[in-house]
Every structure is written in structure tokens, then in C-alpha cells.
Model the fold of this input.
Amino acid sequence: MEHRKTKMESRRDAALLSPDSLSWQVFKNPVAMFVGGITAVLLELAEPRVRSGVWDHTSFRRDPLRRMQRTGTAAMVTVYGSRPEAEKMIAAIRRMHDNVTGTTPSGQAYRANDPELLAWVHMTASFGFIEAYARFVRPLDDRDRDRFYAEGTEIAALYGATGVPATEAELRERFDAMFPSLEASPIVLEFLDILDRTRILPRPFRGLQRTMIRASIDILPRNVRERLELGEDWNLKRREGRWVGWLGRHSERFPIPEKTVRRGLSMGDASNPSGTLRPRRSGFRRRGGDQDPRVEKTEEDPGGGP
Done:
């Protein structure tokens, strides 16, 4: 696909990734980001230490829209911001993550800057975004996937992750190695319920929000989906998949979001904009045990990660 240079590309300092990288194409597609981002979080929440770190130390339950905006903005700055800007933001996120430590309900100790956990977060994000792009935007072959994973290795290292996969085959091996430690949790269903109750998408596309949540579940590895006990109730219907694909292909026409990148340069600043939540009744049926009665300890977090 021929890459047309944007105004932002021509006047900004060199970014961590080249404008002709596959990452620049994937990260500018809002459908790939939304669907793949949810897939990534579901995979993160399957790992007990990451789940406790995410759920105990972020504002997601209290203000999910703002948390998602900050996470998305961090991704935009990492890919499209200049190298000095991206490195400064990543360093700030790592400093904040130094304070994120704890113990899971089963007694496992964790810390957010553990290279092993950072590698899992990086892998899940990479998998979610590239799978959503390949499924709902345009097909990709094995070489494209290898290229995408290789592009992310430098970024992962800046966040402190080590040994991240650089190919599709390496990622599958790491997933297989991690699978025995993954588990179902009521928090996964709570996360999906919060997503359904929060008005995230712009008004013209709001009717597709629940469909896009199901799309994110549809691209999970089958064995992980079974482990998380996300059964047939969460299936994506063929007609729904066509709608998500139509939106994903048409989103390719959108320009790289320069305003989002500029906003992200003030990560952590009080002026960083946030959305207004308008909760609504959920249409998803809750399953599983009681809600985990844990307390959020970090008032503000930059929402970033490898």
C-alpha cells in the first residue's frame, strides 16, 4: 500500500517508528485500536498478577472513559510523537509504575515494572491490534505480521520489557508457555460490563459498540476464550462481522490523528482532557462469583504500557 505523507510527518522530528512502518497504518485505524485494545485487556486480565496490577491501581472502574483515552493517547504518542517526546512520556510512565506493587488474592507478589509482566502486556497489545487489523481492515500475510512484531521490539525495550517476540511464531510459542498461568475471573465480566455501560464511541457509531466488544472476543485465541469462560453468548454474528469490517475498511481513509498526539504530549498534566461519562443500563448478562472487593490505590495513572 502506497503511503501518502501527511503534514505531521513532514514537520515533526523523527519518531520511534518510520512513517512507512506497518505500525503507522495499524495504529491510525480506530476500529483496529478499539477492537484490538479490548482483546489486549482481556488477555491481560487473564494473567493473575497483571490483573491485580491493572484492577487495583487504575481508575478504570471509577472513570473508564478517561482511562481508555489516556491509554489510547499514550499509544499515539509512542508511535507518532517524536523520539524525544515519546521517550520522555515512556520514562514518566515507568517512574509511576515503580510505585505499583502488591499481592494477588492467591498470594503472588507483583510489580508493574517486572520485565516478564511488561513483556506479557506488550505481547497482548501487539496481538490484539494486529489481529483486529487483519480481521476487520485488510488481510495480512505472515511476513506482515512478523514485520509488525519486529517493529515493536524497540518500544517494548523502552518500557522495560525483555525478550519480547519479534515474529508471529515466537509470539505463539510465548502464548503457549503462558497459557497454564491464565485463569477466569469475575473481573473479566466486570470489565466487559463496564465497557457496555459506558458511552465510548461517537454518537453515529454508538449502536455498534456492543458488536465491537463481541468482535474483540471473537479474535481471542480459542483456548484463552474457553479458559475465560466466554461462551456462545459472546459470539459475533456474521452480519455483525460484516458491519465491523465495513467500518474498519472505511476508517483507513482517516488521517493520522495529529491533535491526539499533541494532546498526549501533556501526559499526566491536569489539563489533559477527559470525557464525560453517561452510564446506561447494561445489556450483558453478568456471570460468575462476587465482585472482588479491592480498593483502588492510585488516583491518577498515565494509562500507558508497552
In short: The radius of gyration is 18 Å. The chain has one domain: 21-264.
